[in-house]
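User: Design a sequence. Structure:
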């Protein structure tokens, strides 16, 4: 493991909404990390972010941040269509990188990014932070401890109502097919699908179909899929972003019980067996990427393996691409 400085100075490319509370402050709260610079194409917005979050430097040019000798590692938090562009530049600069999810719009692009970092022997992380959250680590513990016997099947149903932006036809990069082919599926379903890979291992067979039912934007808004993990666990899912209600329900069926939880909603974990039903509430941290960021620090110090890497992120992108059916 490379000998990094005592304080690893991070730069963020694309300091938008996700970095305001979910991720940016987590870098500042992690001992051994410092958020040293941020970049937005709008220099005024970059300066405002830096001032509000007490970040020493700001840029309107990504290349300048990437090649700043005072920056030791880079977090890419831009829309997915520019992830590969910036990641390859970070690899060329010889710096560790964390990429927001989904890793890239296509599996092919993910592979290219992984190869670039592997060639330079550089750490590459993807911000699938649910792999590090205590709530989902509890689910994994129940599974690993055999609380529901042998796992047979997982099902996830996720739906949401159209947002006011959707209904008004206002531009939203998350529903622009040029940036994210599956719209909210790319943005939201990726979290749960990546979590399932963490819980049950890689997928070996994936099929699905997607379409645009509402016609409100260019990306597809409905996906149905089935898959099989290498462990033998089967899976089914339905994701619809034009429903009359919001719903988020995961059920893991085992030979001796089941586990129920939500990927996004703040509801208790429920463990049910033939003779017992247990509910457990585990709150998320204020900055939801905190444990993910802390695990990156441990990885860079040689104190463990981060659960979400470029390779795992690429596999999740392959799953999503296979489910699209196009």
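Assistant: Done.
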């Amino acid at each position: 493991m490379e000998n990094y400085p005592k304080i690893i100075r991070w730069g963020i490319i694309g300091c938008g909404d996700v970095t305001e509370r979910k991720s940016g402050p987590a870098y500042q709260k992690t001992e051994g990390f410092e958020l040293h610079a941020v970049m937005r194409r709008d220099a005024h917005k970059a300066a405002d972010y830096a001032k509000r979050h007490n970040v020493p430097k700001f840029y309107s040019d990504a290349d300048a941040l990437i090649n700043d000798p005072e920056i030791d590692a880079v977090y890419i938090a831009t829309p997915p269509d520019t992830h590969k562009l910036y990641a390859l530049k970070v690899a060329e600069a010889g710096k560790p990188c964390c990429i927001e999810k989904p890793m890239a719009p296509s599996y092919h692009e993910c592979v290219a990014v992984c190869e670039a970092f592997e060639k330079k022997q550089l750490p590459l992380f993807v911000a699938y932070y649910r792999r590090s959250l205590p709530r989902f680590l509890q689910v994994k513990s129940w599974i690993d401890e055999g609380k529901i016997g042998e796992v047979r099947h997982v099902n996830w149903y996720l739906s949401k109502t159209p947002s006011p932006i959707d209904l008004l036809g206002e531009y939203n990069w998350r529903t622009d097919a040029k940036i994210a082919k599956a719209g909210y599926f790319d943005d939201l379903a990726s979290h749960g699908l990546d979590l399932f890979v963490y819980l049950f291992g890689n997928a070996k067979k994936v099929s699905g179909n997607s379409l645009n039912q509402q016609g409100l934007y260019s990306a597809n808004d409905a996906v149905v899929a089935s898959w099989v993990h290498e462990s033998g666990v089967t899976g089914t899912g339905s994701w619809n972003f034009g429903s009359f209600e919001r719903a988020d329900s995961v059920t893991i069926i085992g030979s001796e019980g089941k586990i129920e939880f939500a990927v996004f909603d703040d509801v208790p974990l429920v463990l049910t067996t033939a003779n017992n039903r247990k509910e457990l509430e585990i709150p998320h941290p204020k900055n939801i990427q905190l444990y993910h960021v802390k695990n990156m620090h441990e990885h860079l110090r040689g104190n463990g393996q981060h659960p979400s890497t470029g390779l795992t992120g690429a596999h999740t992108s392959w799953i999503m691409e296979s489910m699209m059916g196009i």
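The mean pLDDT is 97. The longest strand covers residues 151-159.
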